Fold this protein.
Amino acid sequence: MSLWEYANPRKFMGLTDRLVMPLFVLAGLSLAVGLIWGFFFTPDDFRMGSTVKIIYIHVPSAMMAINIWAMMLVTSLVWLIRRHHVSALAAKAAAPIGVTMTLIALFTGAVWGQPMWGTWWAWDPRLTSFLILFLFYLGYMALWAAIEDPDTAADLTSVLCLVGSVFALLSRYAVNFWNQGLHQGATLSLDKEENISDVFWFPLLVSIAGFVLLFVALVLLRTRTEIRARRIHALDARERMA
Amino acid sequence: MPDLGKYAAEVALAYGVSLALLAGVVLLSVRQSRRVKRSLDEAEARRTDG
């Protein structure tokens, strides 16, 4: 069996029909455990006080904001190279989730930054590249909405996605490229033996799992919606021609 | 409720707004999914009848 079989809308709908609900349940459970554990059962940080509890939302949403764009990049490339419609529709379906995650990361970052840095906002490399990523998400969604022909819309939004990937990468690595600004280095890194103390690390991992599962459930649900909308479009066109 | 000390407003605001945004995107997605499914069922029924 090949992965490309699921580029067939019928096969995709058949498989995802069984997956969406269990994924939503798993996502809800993971988010509830991660956030309740983090909010109620972890201590305050000796420097940041109780604001450290914002980490359980800020870090997963920021991670998802970047990784959702990366997923859109892969699916856009698949569309441009292999012309699989499900792929283009999956990218379209992911964008509203990505913009929500970016907004959460920006908002929680500002709320956390105010008491820690003394300012809601600074033109710091990571913050600025995240703001530009947010604007790219909005532009991507606006471009889909502005073009009537779905294949042309998929082509142009895929190219926009390639360009925006520079900023998605920058928002991930900006703190490494430029050793300036207020934002600290990456909270999670595979290079380090210990990222943060275990007492914060384990609930953070559960919360990240919840955000990932929620994204997968939502993107499958929204892709199914886009496939159905495309089918309605095709039936309407057939009716008009008859 | 844990004692959030002097940062209680910031932590509560961060959680409240974030959870509302997450709930919003889930509700909108589910509502849109139901609406489109209903429209497709109607279109398929028209096609079968016609």
Observations:
- Chain B has a mean pLDDT of 93.
- Chain B has one helix and no strands.
- Residues 8-49 of chain B form the longest helix (42 residues).
